[in-house]
């Protein structure tokens, strides 16, 4: 056993860890001292209200880290640690204040922490427009709101809030969500009579359930975790939940990744008062108002196609003003400062009744 | 401005940060590789169910880090970052599963994360005895439960749970809690007619309020944060809340640290199935059953005094069995393996009807 010559010597490894920790500590504090120098320059140049948080710079740092990562820590884990280190360095000058759509414990909170780290001061708001108001009033530096979520219909609230707001999008966060069909040890697939999960998870797997468990009762639960816990001791029921719940309750995975859309993820926007310089891999969101006339949509889409700009999303919303029948929300790859993007914006600006750039921001890292 | 020769050059500082980040990344991954080697040895020696998490070792690492810390990051912040790094390294082998007294967003969750970092899998339980059961059944590696909390009366539940359990205490976490009296910009102290806060915060500041704001209405709110938010726009009310809420809502501090006990903190216990070797600065918790006879308490306390062992806490609970009238819970400084502790335990063991060592564990770091 411990006499095995091929095994490393525990005391020696621990000594190595201690030496590494000493170096790590010195370097982290050196990094913090550098951040203080940056803050000093910014205050001298921009005054006390200078923006210390630079989304494009942070995105670049994280991309570099993931590109050169050799492991054994995964890209996701090493990026998470660097977010925390950056977050701590930034908070040394002044903690970033972030308002998010609450309550606590939601995916939006998870996205907020993923993006800003734990040294940021995060506060839950009861509604999307409250998040906007907090940031507009300067009570929070940034806001985090969901923009694409398959079941909650929050997209429209967030889009509508942009109509009345001067806020800019300064970033996006994407959370991947995988669902599994989980059962207790003694459950046989053919005996399943009930499937438990949160309503939105049941909705995300609707087609899969229709195909594989037609006619089986689906019961909504307050959370996926509670669904998993419930089926642990039962032999005639299954739960839909993610990796964490499966591990925690030692459940068997009857089927993995059963969500209907192969890339099931929820997307969030970071909103703020600042415009973000190009990071090298950016997206831009536009809001365009058009009269409801034949060919209106084509008039907007055509320049993107002609200039070979990759449009990633388009949504339309009825206008609130009544004067223009539709408002289009368009996402495309590129930054407003890119030479190839500017002619497109110019052309659309000439054709549309109104056009507003909601923001150019780094594409979500991971 | 930017021409100022005394200011650092931003581009140069950023280059320096990039170089630091490269080294940091290499070192963190080297540390992770070391952790894998440790795990390899442990599996060879102790089998697949080996304990990778070593509370005494982690406490030593954090103490060293805080002792040699030169800043600019605070001891608390650098310790937090190292907890995260250790947590990530540990999770590489197998994530630690921790059951805690829920719901999410409570101080117990904060304590759990403070102790285990974000790479641990944490699950909220509805009651203290459920936390015990999860750990006993092996569904969770550790549990986190509050043990001293001025208002909720949870001590007795936790103590009672130990009576029926074979679990060991493997650590403690202390969270400091400071309360301030906060008002909006235009509020004058003499105009305050209502004070809002969470019920337990109102209770924590009762004496101070009686002395300084007698007869003023105290209104309980769902949380301190909501209390702070409520008073922001009012001119005749105040809130009791902590630093985070004060900063977030830009409230004025009429009075700071108004909690009645100068060291207002909540203490939590980590419970597990393993005994923890000495870390160099440890505490031990004992459970002692005594017949209710004159001098019983003195018989227990006397050996501590004579052997010069520092007793930090004593609680008595009525016994459930009925056979013995009282059960005493005693905390003292030292580890069961210390030469000076062993004669004390021997003497108490001879005098008591029953004695159980609940655990020796590292004193809470920070």
TrEMBL record, chains A, B:
What would you give as a GO molecular function for this chain, any one? prephenate dehydratase activity
Listed Pfam families: ACT, CM_2, PDT
Q: What are the GO BP annotations of this UniProt entry? A: chorismate metabolic process; L-phenylalanine biosynthetic process
Query: What PROSITE patterns does this protein map onto?
Result: ACT, CHORISMATE_MUT_2, PREPHENATE_DEHYDR_1, PREPHENATE_DEHYDR_2, PREPHENATE_DEHYDR_3
Q: According to its record, what are the GO cellular component terms?
A: cytoplasm
**CDD domains given for it?**
ACT_CM-PDT, PBP2_PDT_1
Q: Does the record carry Iron as a key word?
A: no
Q: Where is the Prephenate dehydratase domain?
A: 97-273
What Gene3D superfamilies has UniProt attached to this entry? 3.30.70.260, Chorismate mutase, Periplasmic binding protein-like II
State the pathway, as annotated in the record: Amino-acid biosynthesis; L-phenylalanine biosynthesis; phenylpyruvate from prephenate: step 1/1; Metabolic intermediate biosynthesis; prephenate biosynthesis; prephenate from chorismate: step 1/1
Q: Which reaction does it catalyse?
A: prephenate + H(+) = 3-phenylpyruvate + CO2 + H2O; chorismate = prephenate
Protein localization: Cytoplasm
Which E.C. number(s) belong to this protein? Answer: 4.2.1.51, 5.4.99.5
**Site keyed Essential for prephenate dehydratase activity: positions:** 266
Q: What is its main location?
A: cytoplasm
Highest taxon above the source species = Bacteria
Ranges of residues in domain ACT: 285-362
For this protein, the record's NCBIfam families field holds: CM_P2 (TIGR01807), PRK11898.1 (NF008865)
Full protein name = Bifunctional chorismate mutase/prephenate dehydratase
Source species: Marinospirillum alkaliphilum DSM 21637
């Amino acid at each position: 056993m411990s006499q095995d010559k091929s095994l490393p010597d525990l005391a020696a490894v621990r000594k190595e860890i201690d030496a590494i920790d000493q170096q790590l500590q010195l370097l982290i504090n050196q990094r913090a001292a550098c951040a203080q120098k940056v803050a000093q320059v910014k205050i001298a140049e921009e005054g006390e209200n200078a923006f210390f948080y630079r989304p494009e710079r942070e995105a670049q740092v994280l991309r570099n880290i993931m590109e050169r990562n050799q492991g054994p820590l995964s890209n996701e884990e090493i990026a998470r640690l660097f977010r925390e280190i950056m977050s701590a360095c930034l908070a040394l000058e002044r903690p970033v204040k972030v308002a998010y759509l609450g309550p606590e414990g939601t995916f939006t909170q998870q996205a907020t922490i993923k993006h800003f780290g734990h040294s940021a001061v995060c506060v839950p708001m009861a509604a999307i427009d409250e998040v906007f108001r907090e940031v507009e009033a300067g009570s929070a530096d940034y806001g985090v709101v969901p923009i694409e979520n398959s079941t909650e219909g929050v997209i429209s609230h967030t889009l509508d809030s942009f109509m009345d707001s001067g806020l800019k999008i300064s970033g996006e966060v994407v959370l991947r969500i995988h669902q599994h069909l989980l059962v207790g040890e003694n459950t046989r697939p053919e005996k399943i009579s009930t499937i438990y999960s949160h309503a939105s998870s049941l909705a995300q797997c609707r087609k899969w359930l229709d195909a594989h468990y037609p006619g089986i009762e689906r019961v909504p639960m307050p959370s996926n975790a509670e669904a998993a816990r419930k089926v642990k001791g039962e032999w005639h029921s299954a739960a839909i939940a993610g990796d964490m719940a499966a591990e925690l309750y030692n459940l068997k995975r009857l089927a993995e990744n059963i969500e209907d859309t192969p890339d099931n993820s929820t997307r969030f926007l970071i909103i703020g008062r600042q415009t973000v310089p190009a990071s090298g891999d950016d997206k831009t969101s536009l809001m365009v108002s058009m009269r409801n006339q034949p060919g209106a949509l084509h008039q907007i889409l055509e320049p993107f196609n002609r200039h070979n700009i990759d449009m990633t999303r388009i949504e339309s919303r009825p206008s609130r003003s009544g004067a223009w029948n539709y408002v289009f929300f368009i996402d495309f790859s590129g930054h407003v400062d890119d030479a190839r993007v500017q002619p497109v914006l110019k052309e659309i600006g000439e054709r549309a009744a109104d056009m507003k750039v909601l923001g150019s921001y780094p594409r979500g890292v991971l």
